[in-house]
Amino acid sequence: MEPDVARYLVPFVFGLVGIAILVGLGVWQMQRLTWKESILADIDARIAADPVALPAAPNPQADRYLPVQVSGQVGDQALRVLVSQKKVGAGYRVISAFDLGDRRVLLDRGFVKVSADIPAPPQGTVTITGNLHWPDDRNSSTPENDVADNTWFARDLEPMADVLGTDPLLVVARDTSYSDAPVTPLPVDTSAIANDHLEYALTWFSLAAIWAAMTGYFLWRVRQSAKGEGP
To answer: Global pTM?
Structure first.
């Protein structure tokens, strides 16, 4: 191979391979985006489906987000889970026991500002429409719950069930047959499910463009160098 040809060919091939890899990763992320959006659409449809009776033995995988309608009595005790709402600020999720007669489950009543008092539960039998949920609120930076002070940092179902004397099964309220103001339902949705594939794709495509620009600049420098070596 002629030295002049090799001078251009090696960086050109190296640059082309790098661009192809980066573009391929971007295309893969776009495919992942389509896949993830399809999953989220299915979950949204499941969440909004017509409610059914509470299953006798719900499965955390098969029954996740299952819409249910239950009737019973709200327990007197309320646990406070610290959360933050956009444009609202800090507040609590209010978790109470819900007595169905033949069993007791956990009820996520909704959100209340930290400055507001949690209202007493309604008297008598009420009806809740909501969704079953096994939340994954805890990560490596989540503080431990302060049970003595009734300040929780995650909806940890097992310890909450122990405190309230219920099954470790959570119904997140969407609609209620009573007013629980100032507590407002905070229904299950897909906003907490990460979907960063578009950002990843744009990152890979941007890196491909930068790589192409760097390759072009390097070839230009090689050409300028070759001119300087001419007769």
So the answer is: 0.77
